[in-house]
Structure formats: structure tokens, C-alpha cells
Amino acid sequence: MIKWHLKKFDELSPIELYSILQLRNEVFVVEQNCVFQDADNKDQPAYHLMGWSAEKLLAYSRIILAGLAYELPSIGRVVTSPAERRNGIGKILMKESIEAVTKLFGPVPIKLGAQLYLKKFYESFGFVQSGDVYREDDIEHIEMVRPGS
Residue 14 is part of which domain span? Predict the structure, then answer.
């Protein structure tokens, strides 16, 4: 059973913040062999969606306000624990992330920067490609938008 929590940065406990950074580093830095500055000053004004089970962070995404990363609200740093993959948690995370954006900002369009290999995954949630392929941290990405509902 996963318990979902949505918090502002200032509401995160030290353990929650440490778990978020640990999971993001495990996947984005170590697993993807990508050296980049994860602490990008977008965490402080963002909302943080966490999926917990038995005091372990299994899934996470960052909800960013319009005007900070893109002109639209966005979902970023979408990540699931490698130990929990292939059981549908990524789909649940995206559903919860979209619901969080709607709860916070209403039925607005949502933008994200997706790793290209995940294009079909995001399309299954109504996102459509909105820009050309670009390289970020040596990984192919595309911008995608989900129309407001």
C-alpha cells in the first residue's frame, strides 16, 4: 500500500528531503551515469509528491509552478525506485502527479521535459510532443504538453 503526500519544500522533514535526494541521485546520477547539478534552486518554490510504503520512498515527482521552468505548470524529476519497477508504480505516480497539478492549479495544461525513450509512456497520459529532440546531460529529451481538462 502506497501512501501519497504532497508538500511544499518548507514542509518537508529532514528525512523526507534526504530520501528525495537519495532517490533522485540513485537514478539520475548513478543509474543513468549522468553527472549534473540536481540542486537547481527549483525545489524551494516547488511542490513535492512522494509515494511511501513502510517508511521507504518508492516514487517521487516535483510539481513546478508556471513561469519557473516553463510557461505552464510542469511535472519533473519523475522517478521510481529501481527495486519497485515493472509493477505499475510509474503509472500510479503519473496519475497522482497530474491530479496534484489539477488540485493545485485547476484543469490547466501541463508541460514536461521527457527522456525520449519514455515518449509513449507519457503519451498514454495525454501528453503530446511539443518540440524537437534535444540533448540534456547527454540524454535525448523532448518537451511534451498535456492539454487542460
Answer: 3-106
